[in-house]
Amino acid sequence: MSENQSYILGTDKTELERLGFQHRVWSSDAARLWERGRVQRGMHILDLGAGPGFATFDLAEIVGPSGQVTAIDISQDYVDYGNAQATLRGYDHVRFYPRSIHDLQLEPEQFDVVYCRWVLSWVNDVDLIITEIAKLLKPGGVFLVQEYAQWGTFRIIPELPEVRTMIEACRESWRVMPSEIDIAPRLPEMFYQNGLKMEHKAMLEKVAAPNELVWQWPGTFLHIYSEKLIEMNLLTKDQQQAFIDAWPSLESNPSGMIITPLMMEFAARKG
User: Fold this and answer.
1) Total count of domains within the chain
2) Which of 43, 47, 90, 121 is deepest in the core (most CB within 10 A)?
């Protein structure tokens, strides 16, 4: 998998900023899952598909200098950014490596925790990846994961045809990709097959009004991703402009709502 294939919005400065904002929106949910997984000081954690490391550095603060966080990402740009940030912050216990999720090149049974978010939804051969994660965990180690369960639940209210066209173009783009975006419901069976006992499962979904932080998360994505949809011939320039023109009316509507795509989270522990 190439870097361009793995990041549908690329890895430029705009996307770096968007990913930082995205982490702000979902950081409290990540922290609650880490707490459920009993992430503690001194642990060795693998942040799988770490991107530029927003979650990585939160985890590094939890485990402290007596612990270690290994961050893996396919983007050399993000690996370089993460390592530069680690040096800037004086975090000697954090290291980023440029690796594919399909070729991790890591020693077995060295991690207390493996964490990933929005990674398995974008890759193939998830069953093989779960098998590898199980090998990397120490006995008693835990896999913590947050992935899409049903992206089609995403709604923006009131329904406008110009916005619905955009959302349906997104859904079609997921269908033509070789990966399965709604991967979460399939994960428990893979856990079981690899000796990972599920300790926690829950739905994740947010509802936001236009004046709330969460509203900006899908809104920003849709505006940026519209260019990709045009490249894929799933959206026309006229449809993109109609979406852009319609958006301000949603943001100014006091009764407007965004319902984010349904996600699931799991904690699965190695026996």
Assistant:
1) 1
2) 47
